[in-house]
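subagent[fold] <- orchestrator: predict structure for attached chain, return tokens only, no commentary.
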Amino acid sequence: MKKSLLLPLALPLVISFWLRSAFAWVDTIFASLLHSDIDGAIGDASIAAIGLTLPLDFLLTAFWVGTSNGVTSRLAAAIGANRSDEVEQIKKSTHKIILGLCFFAILTAVAIWMSAEHLGLDATVAKQFKIYATVMMLGSAFTSFWSILPDSLVKAHHDTRSTMWAGLWSSLTNLTLNALFLFVFEWGIFGIAFSTVLGRIAGFIYATTRARYHEVKRQQATTIHVPGTSPNPVRKILWLAIPSSITFVLMGVETFAINGILKDTADSVASLAAWSIFDRTTRFLMMPIIAASVAMLPLIARLNAQGKSADIRFELFAGMRAAMIYVIAFVTPIVYFVGPKIASGLSDSAATQAATQDVIFLAPLAILCLAPFLLSRATFDGLQRPRPGLITAAIRTFGCVIPLAIYGAHNYAAYNLSQIQAVSLGYLAGLMLSSLGFWVYTRQSLIRRQNR
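subagent[fold] -> orchestrator:
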């Protein structure tokens, strides 16, 4: 029986992504413990503020991932061709792109600080959002964006283990500082955000150290230096980075839109907190499928270069089968048994607990709906055809997810549902329609490709 190459390639990434995602829960867990002398228990409001920040943080993460993909690809090609001058050129060009990203993050932080209290949010939520989101955006400008270059260098040298360790060091530092800032210094949500920012510095230092090690080793081992540089290096990096970034940006737009819908519901604090918990749960449990899609891209690119169209279809279907087994055998039981404990453990009020109970059990369906889209998009990216993934992402966001979520918010009573349930089901329906359509298109495209 033929064995899939995808699953062994994805396993190290699954471990890495899962560790990072697990520690991403730290902020939410610590936020649930917050208390104010004036407002009393503010855990729900703080979780809601973190949920409101997620799409903004996801936007900056999209820029980070897209830029890193472009830089990694260019560096790997230059290193493979022994073009040392081009490697140095790419490093300098990356710094220019990073400066642009930092400027954008600072502007975003200023905009949040000035407008948070004028967005129609609950007063406590607005206050917590203003502090948490501003610190997180500034943190991206002064810490996380600068890790793009060392992280890309490490991956270009095929050292994915160091990528995993950098993430682990960041997460452990975040956990330690969270406890220190919250329980010793009593800095509240500022301390939670600040510990995340400082935690990223630990990963940056580790990645930088490993990148320098690999670069020194490369320079010492290289006996033939091929001269020459690349024209328009910044443009070439962005040509690879922008399609990947836009796809992730659109996913962030969906979450931002859902938050906008929920802030106008009858009990906005409970709804926003419940969606934040649901969103965080879904992202955490989705990590193995995201890892598989990341591993899919270079695998498909290699098979495409070798003209193995049948193997491309085989790997795509192997990935989808593995995703279905994972959701049915692992995700569903975990959510069924642990979901109620998550709802009660992270909720201050009965309203938030009830709202979370209404949506937490939808997480397996959300992951199952996302799997075909992620694997299909990675397949087209590997085939050097990013346009189908971008078009489908745009249709999914603006033609399916947002309209159906709005429909749910206005027609929940007709279906005897709570507003949070109706909005979440509209979101899932949008995911399902777009993913199934993209899956059918991908399958037909690969059949046509194989029959040529």
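orchestrator: received. Logging for downstream: The chain has a mean pLDDT of 84. The CA atoms of residues 102 and 142 lie 7 Å apart.
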